[in-house]
Design brief:
Chain lengths: 320, 290
């Protein structure tokens, strides 16, 4: 096996260097340095309009970058675009399905475009895998959004791509369709596929992703959900109180080792740097202010809180 | 170029045309119906009055000979020598009886209508295949496959221009058949199956259809809305209308000299295709959908 081929197989699935895209005055994606490992599910999180779709389009060769470079599956994004396209699957934000074609016709078309030799067999297999066999020969016009998304997913996976781009894969789907899509992502992950998933759904990212990139025009953070929760959400202590004194919050915020304090679901949620050393001091302070402490327990931030914290937002606030 | 991929796209385009009732009706059914029904209907109506018209003219001519008052003659009906329009269409038509001359004028008007098909129909097929598809987001999944811009463009141009060309040829054939049925085939052949008309139908129509589709592709890179693209594209009909007016007024005659117009247009295909290729590049299309 040629060295170049070995290098291609062991290199990261995606590696970008200063990749950026401008639309006139707007810098949708600022110079981006990102590495996506082979076989991982990377969640690309950010609010609407953050540049996630632009980034996905650039990495999937649909949109030329204004500057910078990227290596995707061992091929240069510009020079090797044709080779990249043969090995990636892209689920676009809009399913992009023809209402007058049937799912089978859609898949036959894309099998033909990918040059699949045993096209019909593969088409039938993918239709069955996504539970579309019964509706395979009906025109798409009467399909629900969930069914349409399944067809779009079938189209994306038809040629067994190594790297799969999913742009908001569960957006607008009902609970059952979301479950199907999530199960499929987990199945693909178990097969060793690399998945780049742009989403603004924290729950989805938390359940499916090995690592999460928080992005708003710039890459703000990149790590596992656990580390991000710890790093950006901070460690928290949840305290149940009977009869809290009226000026408690103000007094807490003056303490230098407390980063934040808020009421959440009837509990006092206090974010501190080191809970193991701060918790006794916190309890002492609360008792000294006349509070009756009923229960104290450690609590970690959710990924949503970590993301909002990273973006400089508080829960419930709008993106600036 | 991978012909297999082009063939798959053409398969999809033809399915779409066949199943899209509105498109099929507008591009195939209505033009053919008009060609097959409108002219014969008019011929029948006018044909019935042909004898009356001829008799009126005979009376008028007799009156002119007897009374020598041309003012009365003009008031009672058209004199072939005073109304030179049919003669300007073709010298042989002037020798036909007056009623026949009117039928010949109808034939020429109908053929003028048919020559607009290669320009009018691609406005619908082209804007549907290119602008509308892009607006509906169905182009993006295609662009994520290994298909090349040239292959996509060739498939789109063929899909958008072949139906209008086939409809034009069919309609022209129908017009000839109708003319032969109501007039005489030798004269129809002499007047309408000429190098000029053959050039218009078999070279001009495909050329116009392809060029207009390419123009729509270029326009679509600036105009994201199918209707707006149609409106801008419709401007190209104006020169052809001018040509028809020239024909009817006798200023333009269709003969071999038409090649002097068509050949430069054929040469234009290459830069037009290159421009369309640039406009249809992945980056350009997707950036417009941002």
């Amino acid at each position: 096996m040629a060295l170049a081929q070995v290098a291609r197989m062991t290199s990261p699935a995606i590696q970008t260097s200063g990749l950026c895209r401008r639309f006139g005055e707007l810098e949708a994606v600022a110079p981006l340095d990102l590495e996506v490992r082979r076989g991982e599910v990377l969640g690309f999180l950010g609010p609407n309009g953050a540049g996630k779709t632009t980034c996905t389009r650039m990495l999937s060769t649909l949109l030329e970058p204004t500057a910078g470079s990227a290596i995707v599956l061992g091929h240069d994004l510009e020079a090797g675009a044709d080779r990249i396209r043969a090995r990636i699957g892209v689920l676009t934000e809009q399913p992009g399905l023809h209402p007058r074609l049937t799912p089978r016709e859609h898949l036959r078309l894309f099998a033909g475009l990918h040059g699949l030799s045993a096209a019909s067999g593969r088409v039938t297999a993918v239709l069955a895998a996504l539970g579309l066999s019964d509706v395979a020969d009906r025109p798409m016009a009467g399909f629900s959004k969930g069914q349409g998304q399944k067809v779009a997913l079938a189209r994306t996976l038809l040629h067994d791509p190594d790297l799969i781009f999913l742009d908001e894969p569960t957006s607008g789907l009902d609970v059952d369709s979301c479950r199907v899509v999530r199960d499929l992502v987990l199945e693909l992950k178990s097969q060793g596929k690399t998945i780049f998933m742009a989403t603004h759904l924290m729950d989805e990212a938390e359940r499916l992703c090995d690592r999460v990139a928080i992005f708003r025009h710039h890459l703000l953070a990149l790590d596992t959900p656990d580390v991000l929760r710890g790093r950006f959400g901070g460690q928290r202590v949840a305290v149940q109180l009977d009869g809290p004194p009226p000026d408690l919050m103000a007094s807490l915020r003056h303490l230098p080792w407390i980063r934040d304090a808020a009421w959440q679901d009837g509990e006092l949620m206090v974010r501190v740097d080191r809970p193991e050393t701060c918790t006794p001091d916190l309890v002492n302070h609360l008792v000294s202010r006349g509070a009756r402490v009923r229960q104290v327990r450690p609590a970690t931030a959710t990924l949503e809180e970590a993301v909002l914290g990273t973006l400089g937002l508080t829960p419930g606030s709008e993106a600036p | 170029m991978n012909r297999g991929r082009v063939a798959w796209l053409l398969w999809r385009e033809s399915l779409d045309l066949w199943r899209n009732r509105r498109l099929f009706l507008g591009v195939v059914v209505v033009p053919l119906l008009l060609a097959a029904a409108m002219t014969p209907a008019l011929m029948v109506i006018v044909g019935r009055t042909e004898q009356v018209l001829t008799a009126q003219m005979q009376v008028a001519r007799t009156r002119q000979e007897v009374l020598g008052t041309p003012r009365v003659v003009r008031a009672s009906g058209p004199d072939p020598q005073q109304a030179p329009l049919p003669g300007l269409l073709h010298p042989r038509i002037a020798q036909e009886p007056p009623g026949r001359q009117v039928l010949w004028m109808l034939v020429f008007f109908s053929l003028g209508y048919v020559t607009l098909f290669p320009l009018l129909l691609p406005l619908t097929t082209g804007s549907h295949a290119i602008v509308q598809e892009r607006a509906e987001g169905t182009l993006e999944p295609l662009l994520a496959t290994p298909i090349r811009t040239t292959e996509l463009l060739v498939a789109k141009v063929v899909a958008a221009s072949v139906p209008p060309v086939l409809i034009t040829w069919s309609s022209w054939g129908i017009q000839l058949a109708v003319a032969a049925a109501f007039l005489t085939w030798p004269l129809v052949r002499e007047i309408l199956v000429t190098p000029g008309w053959l050039l218009v139908v078999f070279l001009g129509a495909p050329l116009a259809s392809v060029l207009l589709t390419l123009l729509l592709v270029v326009l679509s890179s600036r105009i994201p809305d199918a209707r707006a693209a149609q409106q801008w594209g419709a401007l190209v009909v104006l020169p052809v209308l001018g040509l028809q007016m020239g024909m009817l007024s006798g200023m333009v005659r269709l003969d071999e000299r038409l090649l002097l117009v068509l050949l430069p247009l054929a040469v234009l295909l290459v830069p037009a295709f290159r421009a369309a290729e640039r406009a249809f590049a992945r980056g350009a299309i997707v950036a417009l959908r941002r």
